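Researcher: Let's walk through a ligand-bound prediction step by step. First, I give you the protein sequence. Second, the SMILES string for zinc ion. Third, you return the three-dimensional complex as structure tokens. Ready?
Model: Ready.
Researcher: Here are steps one and two:
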Amino acid sequence: MKKPNGHEIIQLFEKFSPKSLAMEGDKIGLQIGRLNQKVKRVMIALDVLENVIDEAIEKDVQLIIAHHPPIFRPLKNIITDTVQGRMIEKLIKHDIAVYAAHTNLDVAKGGVNDLLADSLGLKEVEVLVPTFETGLKKLVVFVPETHADELRRVLGDVGAGYIGNYSHCSFSTSGTGRFMPGENTNPYIGSAGKIEAVDEVRIETIVPDKLLKKVISAMIKAHPYEEVAYDVYPLENKGEVLGLGRVGKIDEMTLGEFAEKVKTALDVNHVRVVGDLNTKVTKAAVLGGDGNKYWQHAKFKGADVYVTGDIYYHTAHDAMMEGLNMIDPGHNVEKIMKKGLTNILLKLCDEAGYEVEIFPSEINTDPFQFK
Ligand SMILES: [Zn+2]
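Model: Step three, the predicted complex:
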């Protein structure tokens, strides 16, 4: 087992939740402290409040990964007898780094919105507000027939050839490859200065941009030739759609029953509901955090009910008049990321052979209570 530093942990984390998925202007990444020290304990938090920092100090944490960035507006000064100044002072004195993953964690596959959709039992889940489409490339490689099966397997295993739920997709044609090895070469087939003709296969497959480097290096490693002949073509096809919120089918029930389900699934005592509690609902949209400005997306996608936090009085009126039911369980339901992210990061660190403890913060940061 390897004792990782902060950079190594964050590199793993960003494979799951890359910074490139964040909305423009979002404040993400390392906010306070440093990553170039060994990390024994990581704490996952929704909000970084002073009592959360005290918890981190008490539990000997070196790195906090938080959903809500503690520094959102630019600081003009750091005065240590204000709460914010004192928080920064405590973090630096105790050498605790804070890394924020905000909208990139909302958008990420398996991130906050997927966790919420799963817990509410959404099926046939789609993205509610598309913000990002992955680009695709066509990769063509020429290989001797004897090695074609092995190369197709390697390409598929590293993630090339995904079309919908099908993996290892490729197309092959046979032909003749010709080449003349130059001086100072060490050819797998043929000899220097002599034109050679070999039965070769042209394998073509599709690769998401983000995997291209990895796929090419695996391909070169698995290929028998000293110099691998391959082409990369840009494609107009769009890859996977990523974005904020999720929408999907639910078992038919009344709005009142669904509100109860939301309370149980998201662990809240109260929800605010807009709409007739007796209407039937079969399709639900969910967006963690403040989803006011996206209610029309929920309506457009055919959702009967939209679950999001911080619903304003006037948004509720607008949605009500358009016949869209709404449930507001509060912004704090994003606390689901504490356990969710802990499990994901534990798995990634385990696969990488990292010896590190990762746990969710136990502090309840919901500022609201109901009397
Ligand atoms: Zn939020």
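Researcher: And what stands out?
Model: Residues 68, 289, 331, 334 surround zinc ion (CB under 6 Å). The two ends are 50 Å apart (CA to CA).
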